[in-house]
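Section 3.1: Structural characterization of target chains.
Under the original work plan, the team committed to producing a structural model for every single-chain target entering the pipeline before any wet-lab resources were allocated. The record below documents one such target. The sequence was received from the expression subgroup and is listed exactly as submitted; it comprises 274 residues.
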Amino acid sequence: MLHFPNAKINLGLFVTQKRPDGYHDIETVFYPLPMLKDALEVLPAIEENPSAMRVSGKKIEGDVYDNLVWKAFQLLQAGFPDKVSEVQIHLMKTIPMGAGLGGGSADGAFMLRLLNKFFNLELSDETLSDFALQLGSDCPFFIYNTPHFAKGRGEILTPVELDLSSYSIQVVCPKVHISTAAAFSNITPKPSTFDLSKLGSLPVEDWRDFVLNDFEYPVFKTNPELSVIKEKLYASGALYASMSGSGSTIYGIFKEGEKSGLITDSGHEVFYFE
């Protein structure tokens, strides 16, 4: 069985307070990018051999068995030992990693969805979301995989009516890795300045003055080349441009059929969707 975990971008991101448990409360809108995706395949284990996982495509640092895909399998196997048997797993990585696109979280959440079908567990989205939260704060979003306003750690989700299909989106992934932990350490939490749950009622042309990402100031300060990319997107006619998550991806939303030609030969990975 084959699934295709997709990326996401953050439309606005406010860090509102630090919690007693060490996490931060945020407010953001998660928006799926179904055109940018990995491939995830599960097959029955051969002759009842122990489960195994292999990865191709982009190189993943560290032990493959620390991957959220494998952890998702372990979660459901522990929860349903009479139903979830041994499997062979193949993950092909295409989504850039450590870039604020949620690729690892998507892989873990889609593994839960895939196993739910593969073994006919008949788990609801709500139950899968509970399992996904054990993998990571933004994993529950990928269970639903439609535009959602998120708060708390990112796990408190409310659907939003938002459709960008009539626009073009250009995604620029520089060869810069941003540590999420370091990015949070440089943030001073403060109340949000705009209610992102109402983003769908604000024209994209007006987002620039209201829809902000709190991570941009500290991240751009240490990585000014990211600010340059954002400026180039606006200079090329982007209606809205921002960093996704804690970086380093910068994206621009353009009128349909438009894009920036200023950064296509920059050496960055550039994706264009319309």
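The two ends are 28 Å apart (CA to CA).
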